[in-house]
Amino acid sequence: MSAPGRRGGGDHRRHRRRTPSVVFAVHGLALAVGGAASVWTAVHGVADPAAAAAFGALVVVGEAFRIPEPEGREAAPVAFAGALAYALLAAEAVAVVVAVSAAAVVAGQLRGAPRDAAARRVLTVAFAAATAQPLYGGSGGHPGYAVLLLASTILCDAVLAAVLGTARTGHPFASVLRDELAVLPGVGSAVCAGGVVLAQAEQAAGLWALPVCGVPLLLTQTAFRRHAAIRSTHRETIASLARATEVAGYTPVGHARRVSALSHAMGRELGLGGKALAALEHAALMHDIGQLSLVDPVPGGATSSLDQVERRRIALLGAEVVRRTGAPEEVARIVEGQADPYRDQALAGRIVRTANAYEDLAGSGTAVGRGLQALERLRLDTAHEYDPRVVEALTRVVARAGQ
Amino acid sequence: MLPAAARVYIPVVVVSACGALVTGPREGTPWATAAVLAVLYAAGERTGASLPPVLFAAALLLPPGAAALVAVPGGLLAPVRGEPRPVRRVWHAAQLALATAAAAQVRTAFGDGPFARLPGLLVPALAAVLAFCLFSAALTAGVLVTAERTAPSAAWREALLEPLAPHLTYGLVGLMAAVLWQGPYGAVAAVLALLPTHIARWVVGQARRERAAHQATVRALVQAVEIKDRYTRGHSERVGRASALIAREIGLPPERVEALRLAGILHDIGKLGVPTRVLRKDSPLTPEERRIIELHPGYGHEMVRGIAFLDDARTAILHHHERLDGSGYPYGLAGEAIPSSARLVAVADAFDAMTSTRAYQATRGVDDALGELRRCAGSHFDPLMVQALIRAVRREGWNPAVTADEPESFAPAQARRHARREAPARRTPEPRP
């Protein structure tokens, strides 16, 4: 399971941030490289127009069947593999990719698709072409070389994605990079193998190899798509379950989602990533679910004002519900430990408790004053209720959101 | 104990497979290639991500006898379900060996010349895949009929049509692997060609686990309501089943059928927001309590707002208590103003409420319930939906018991497969009066 509330991930940040200069720099670099490649291709001409058209078509088809909300960050692995394969074979790949990316950005802008992906695509393919041409030389080479080249290209892509992600969200670079690297064994190796095979097959059997290779690769992408669809339906169902307490009047509207988003931001701030972060977010979404077993709603759902025994009972019942939903055991354990003193809790549990208390105190109001008062209250309680380190992370997150 | 027919059939097939292994030309067989392919295939089967393209590559690269040999270790090592295990393993290996040998035979029959390279090579490759599928299907259908007593037509459909499309894809992968194998870099490049398929199968496995997790989440949601409301166990699930039955009967596309199934399962989810005391009250409700209960469709709708997959089936949850004459709630909509998905789920809900046992109400027979639905059609229920339910139940029967089966998938792309796989309840409808 992954981040059930990812859609609401940036919710606590109400203000749209200005595009950071790093992002501008990357976009500018991509534009410059793409422009130079296009000019170069225009001057030198395309060596093999049929190949350019065939690979271009493969990239376009791959882009057309994008994976919505992919698990790995790569939404169009077949397009990526096709572009990389062509980069191994001919330098004009960069120009082809520029053309397709430009079209995708123009088409994508209508739907709000990120320009970051297009910039990354242009830069990584340029990197692959630049390293491949001297080493691999378009005339064929050992597949081992090709694997090495494409693997390093994909690593560079992950680093670039992490740089852009850090610049946009302000999360620590290491944690973002870890997430980017964690998904490489699945989709990354498929892209790498796909790219090498397409290049090798084109050299062995001509352009006929492209459909023969491309069709199974597209079906691989379909498998990823299907997986992504089930994942998002599951995530949405979990969010529905979380909303049950709101509907029943136990918690204020949007409470679970806000605590989850806040916990996510704090978890990132404290260096969590990957599965741990997803479990944290999931548990934060479910932290109040035990209240469904209460006879009367707690006023405002503020469990932090209940007595210890009652809180522990809610936590245990909640964990039971979470276990029944088939959620990972660590999620249930975080929920279970919600009422324990923070020194007995794992980091994720402390984060959820602090985020929950902050939400209870500050409410959904945007008034900065209430938020500051809430922070002050939490700071005063750090002796026994809340982990000072976590409260510090919360302060940073809140401060950034207030900017 | 196996039936007598199977005790003849299986040994005959195994002996023919052994025959295929030992006959045929031996000279010039690339044994190294055969060994590598056999190891690859066995490794795939052993790790649970089977690699059928290896067999197609073998059929294209090797003479029939050697190609059959490639299938044997993997066939023997593959995990099997059900008893008797040794028989099943040997059977599996024999079947794969024969089908692979048939594919290789077809490839050999085309000879070389124009068929040696792409695009000509596509023709024998596809013919080989078809031969593989036909052979394998014939053998499987035989064992289904003799050992498991499946009806021949159903056995044939299950054995041939389901695997055909994926095998055509695997055939392409096998073809590419074979082409690369004959290229300058041999096995290394060919193994790379297999890697994306391996990853795809791994992802499919992940998707299956994810789907199971999703079903567990839905079940937990539904159980919370059923405990609160003292419903008979499985009411929600059965409403989902009946909704899907009607949806299929009126010819909706598979994806909508699945969405309506999920909507049917979740139709009462809003009762989580209604105090248990009110839900469980045995004495007549006060107007105030009635008003509180009538809030549940709205609560439910609010809860599932975020589930994109439900799409417009979401309105079924909001309006499943509306009646055709406008006497329902929450909005008192009438006739066509009620969304069709809500009219559908309303019929399914009423049908299960009548045929299942609740604490305060005796069970009716299926026919009795259908009669009652027909009587209320036009005033409460949409006659179209009632007719569809009656037709479907007459044809497929209805099993009011809680099924031991897992609830069906809600995943869009899985819809079609599930539509086919869902076994009709093996119970005949109650005898008509």
Task: List key phrases describing it.
heterodimer, A: 403 residues, mainly alpha, Arp2/3 complex 21 kDa subunit ARPC3, Hypothetical protein af1432, disordered N terminus, B: 433 residues, 18 helices, 66% helix, transmembrane helix (chain B), Cyclic_di-GMP/3'3'-cGAMP_PDE (chain B), HD/PDEase_dom (chain B), HDIG_dom (chain B)
Give a verbal description of the structure:
Chain A: Residues 254-359 form the HD domain. Chain A: Keywords: Membrane, Transmembrane, Transmembrane helix. Chain A: It comes from Actinacidiphila glaucinigra. Chain A: The chain crosses the membrane at residues 21-43, 79-106, 145-169, 181-199, 205-224. The complex is a heterodimer of chains A (403) and B (433). Chain A has helices at 21-44, 49-64, 77-89, 93-111, 115-136, 143-169, 173-182, 184-205, 209-247, 255-269, 274-286, 308-324, 329-336, 347-362, 368-380, 388-402. Chain A has 403 residues and is mostly helical. Chain B is an all-alpha fold and 433 residues long. Chain B has 2 domains: 4-183, no CATH class; 212-421, Orthogonal Bundle (Hypothetical protein af1432). Chain B has helices at residues 4-22, 31-46, 52-61, 64-77, 85-110, 122-147, 152-182, 186-229, 235-249, 254-265, 276-279, 287-293, 296-303, 314-319, 340-355, 366-376, 383-396, 415-421. Chains A and B meet through helix 6, helix 8 and helix 9 of A and helix 7, helix 8 and helix 13 of B.
Give the H and E element order of chain B.
HHHHHHHHHHHHHHHHHH
The total domain count of chain A is 2
Helix/strand/pairing category of chain A: mainly alpha
Largest sheet of chain B: none
- What is the approximate shape of chain A? elongated
Beta-strand fraction estimate of chain B: under 5%
Number of domains of chain B: 2
Largest sheet of chain A: none
Q: Count interface residues per chain for the largest interface.
A: A-B, 59 and 64 residues
What is the mean predicted local confidence, pLDDT of chain B? 83
Query: Which second-level CATH architecture of the largest domain in chain A applies?
Result: Orthogonal Bundle
- Helix count of chain A? 16
The assembly state of the depicted protein chains is heterodimer
Share of residues in helices of chain A:
over 70%
Residue runs with pLDDT of under 50 for 5 or more positions of chain B: 403-433
- CATH architecture descriptor name of the largest domain in chain B: Orthogonal Bundle
* CATH class annotation of the largest domain in chain A: Mainly Alpha
Tell me the number of helical segments of chain B per DSSP (H or I, 4 or more residues long): 18
Distance between the termini of chain B: 41 Å
**End-to-end distance of chain A, in Å?**
33 Å
Protein name (chain A): HD domain-containing protein
InterPro entries (chain A): Cyclic_di-GMP/3'3'-cGAMP_PDE, HD_domain
Transmembrane segments (chain A): 21-43, 79-106, 145-169, 181-199, 205-224
Domain HD (chain A): 254-359
